[in-house]
Amino acid sequence: MVDKEKDHLPRDDYLMRLRSGDLDLSVRREALDWIWKAHAYYGFGPLSLCLSVNYLDRFLSVYQLPKGVSWTVQLLAVACFSLAAKMEEVKVPHSVDLQVGEPRFVFHGKTIQRMELMVLSTLGWKMQALTPCSFIDYFLVKISCEKHAEKSSITRSVQLILNIIKGIDFLEFRYSEIAAAVAISVLKEVPVQEVDKAITDFVIVEKDRVLKCVELIKDLSLNKVGATKNTTYVPQSPIGVLDTGCMSFKSDELTNGSCPNSLHNSPNTKRRKIDGPSNGSSQS
User: Fold this and answer.
1) How far is the C-alpha of 180 from the C-alpha of 159, rounded, in Å?
2) 274 three-class SS
3) Does the predicted TM-score (pTM) go above 0.85?
4) How many domains is the chain built from?
5) Domain range for residue 116?
6) Highest-confidence segment of 4-13, 75-84, 190-199, 222-231
7) Which own/partner contact pairs does 210-219 have at CB distance under 8 Å and 24+ positions apart?
8) What are phi and psi of 95, to 5 degrees?
9) What count of other Cβ atoms lies within 10 Å of the Cβ of residue 114?
10) Based on the domain organization, do 103 and 155 belong to the same domain?
């Protein structure tokens, strides 16, 4: 599973290009802002949100959207969210009904489908992607020396993961490294010497990189990023965050199962659907 991890990561220079301005950071921010709103509206599980971010970052790292064409950002966000929902949720509305939150542009189903196919092709059809959630149970068990990770620990870990993946700082790390750092941060009550021994015994991650990630999480915590400023980053639905009991982790196999969740009613508001770049406020 760790060997496959690199196949599900953005291109190596993605973070550098975002920080240097070579890639427009506002494109990623705008897309994720809408994905977070849509995810909270429908109360989908946490894995569909992680996958949405994964698809978006991998796509943007290898495909640059046309500059100055703002509707493409919205279309890409809808496509990534739709694909992630189809991968993880039991009940998924039609793609046209996923366009909630008064978006600037609303697209026909065929237009969204074409964008989905572009995303699928660009990502090499590798949609069962690994995320930090894929590894979290393994590290919680390793550090706590328990046979199974406690549900409360998984819940706190998932909350922390969702709090940090919207920013770009953690793009520096592999998903397994993030999961290890999150597990250490969550299991604060475990004696320091046991944590240190567990990190030393980690085979699939490098100790120095995990500790660097832990320090970054501490910095974010001190700045109250996860607690106050970014509370909107975590889905507001209790289904979206707390229903982690459906996550069928197996620490010995390092795999994660799907997370079926109930679905809120689809929006019934009628909106003008478009095939191309047209404002949602345009006259019919």
Assistant:
1) 15
2) strand
3) no
4) 2
5) 2-122
6) 75-84
7) 210/177, 210/180, 210/181, 210/184, 211/181, 212/173, 213/170, 213/173, 213/177, 213/178, 213/180, 213/181, 214/181, 214/184, 214/185, 216/169, 216/170, 216/181, 217/160, 217/164, 217/181, 217/182, 217/185, 218/185
8) -55, -35
9) 14
10) no
